[in-house]
């Protein structure tokens, strides 16, 4: 069998089949987001009772949310660390390392002793493991997005870029589905004693599956060509800030509304919906409503990719961001009504908008950066957006709802969306752009 050659007569790099690319990007991010959201759910339901001193329930919840936020501080660190290696040694090996970092941190959480057993050391260890989760996810998303987009046909990049994005609703559904099943089959005492550990320990099985899938991949063609041409950046993180500062700033701000919307619709709504001072739903009852909303999130994510491939990333996201601002006006009255149909409608609409705004990001952020610093640039922008938009969202929304009212939580969302809208209006359209571009002044 004759080997294929490139335009210069060299042996062409092996190409990943589309099905393998889709499977690897989807499974990998699903596992990573499963790990991340298992913690988010436990931060609402479990950790305030087991890892912090007994007493004021609101104070314990806020302390738990503080450990939740630690991951968003770690994620930019992870994006810089894994981005360096992703741009220097390749996407494949770095994705394997990020998956292991996330998975080991998650499994260890499932083995931690509680506050009653080791006092203040328990929340400190919990915070350390949460930092590890953030570190891993900081390197995961950029690599998975590049895996999808650098292997995609140019006219289908936004669609291919939605497959790593689908990991978020799938991971959320799996994480909370496991909690729902366990809380249904175990008594409350058994669930608090040991049942909550099961979702974290299950991550070990998922990691094995994810590693097997990723180790079968070839390196992306775009990165292979960069290696062959000798145009890899010596210090990708420094290089991306030197050559693409505007793209980092705009990419970060473009992500802010997405993050605020998601964590208001999930972590905050779960906390408020199940709190005696909020809506007072039983955990299982509210979780069912939330999982229905997440189905719409997942269904509309690829739809957004198709729209962005046809009409462009910028027009699609501008329209959705305006819709998010309008939703911010209605969110407080709908969620605060206490009416199950209104609460469900709030979750469905909010998470539908989440799918529409999140879907195109898998293509847009990588397209903002040249190949030799793309892993670093896309990862840094994505995770700085998380630091600004998500790290404080559950904490701030909980405080606003208690001290001001739910209308202020909607105003918080509107403010975040306005920031994103300004960034989108300043950004360039990236549909149809080449993914083989390298700045003329880059290091080798």
From TrEMBL:
Domain Major facilitator superfamily (MFS) profile residue range list: 21-435
Keywords, ordered alphabetically: Cell inner membrane, Cell membrane, Membrane, Transmembrane, Transmembrane helix, Transport
Alphabetical list of Gene3D superfamilies matching this protein: MFS general substrate transporter like domains (1.20.1250.20)
Topological category with respect to the lipid bilayer: Multi-pass membrane protein
Transmembrane segments annotated in the record for this chain: 36-54, 60-82, 94-112, 118-137, 158-182, 194-215, 248-266, 286-308, 315-336, 342-368, 380-400, 406-427
Pfam families named in the record: Sugar_tr (PF00083)
Source organism per UniProt: Nocardiopsis mangrovi
Keyword Transport: yes
Subcellular location: Cell inner membrane
Major subcellular site: membrane
UniProt name for this protein: MFS transporter
């Amino acid at each position: 069998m004759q080997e294929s050659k490139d335009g210069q007569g060299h042996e062409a790099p092996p190409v990943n089949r589309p099905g393998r690319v889709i499977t690897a990007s989807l499974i990998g991010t699903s596992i990573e987001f499963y790990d991340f959201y298992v913690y988010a759910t436990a931060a609402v339901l479990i950790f305030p009772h087991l890892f912090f001193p007994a007493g004021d329930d609101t104070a314990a919840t806020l302390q738990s949310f503080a450990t939740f936020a630690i991951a968003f501080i770690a994620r930019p660190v992870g994006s810089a660390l894994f981005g360096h290696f992703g741009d220097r040694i390749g996407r494949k090996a770095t994705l394997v390392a990020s998956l292991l970092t996330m998975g080991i941190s998650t499994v260890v959480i499932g083995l931690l002793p509680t506050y009653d057993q080791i006092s203040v050391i328990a929340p400190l260890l919990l915070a350390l493991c949460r930092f590890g989760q953030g570190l891993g996810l900081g390197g995961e998303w950029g690599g998975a997005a590049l895996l999808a987009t650098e292997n995609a046909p140019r006219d289908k990049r936004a669609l291919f870029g939605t497959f790593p994005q689908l990991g978020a609703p799938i991971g959320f559904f799996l994480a909370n589905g496991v909690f729902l099943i366990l809380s249904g089959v175990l008594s409350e005492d058994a669930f608090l004693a040991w049942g909550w550990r099961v979702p974290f320990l299950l991550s070990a099985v998922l990691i094995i599956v994810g590693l097997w899938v990723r180790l079968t991949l070839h390196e992306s063609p775009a990165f292979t060509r960069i290696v062959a041409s000798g145009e890899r950046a010596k210090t990708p993180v420094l290089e991306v800030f030197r050559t693409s500062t505007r793209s980092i700033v705009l990419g970060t701000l473009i992500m802010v509304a997405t993050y605020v919307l998601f964590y208001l619709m999930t972590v905050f709504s779960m906390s408020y919906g199940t709190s005696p001072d909020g809506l007072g739903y039983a955990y299982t009852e509210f979780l069912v409503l939330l999982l229905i909303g997440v189905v719409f999130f997942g269904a509309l994510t690829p739809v957004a990719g198709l729209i962005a491939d046809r009409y462009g990333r910028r027009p699609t996201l501008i329209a959705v961001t305006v819709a998010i601002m309008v939703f911010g006006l209605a969110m407080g009255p709908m969620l605060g009504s206490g009416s199950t149909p209104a609460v469900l409608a709030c979750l469905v609409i909010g998470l539908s908008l989440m799918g529409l705004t999140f879907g195109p990001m898998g293509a847009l952020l990588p397209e903002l950066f040249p190949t030799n610093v793309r892993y670093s640039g896309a990862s840094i922008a994505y995770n700085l957006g998380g630091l600004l938009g998500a790290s404080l969202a559950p904490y701030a929304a909980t405080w606003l709802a208690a001290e001001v009212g739910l209308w202020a939580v909607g105003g918080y969302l509107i403010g975040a969306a306005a920031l994103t809208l300004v960034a989108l209006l300043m950004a360039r359209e990236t549909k149809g752009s080449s993914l083989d571009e390298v700045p003329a002044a880059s290091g080798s």
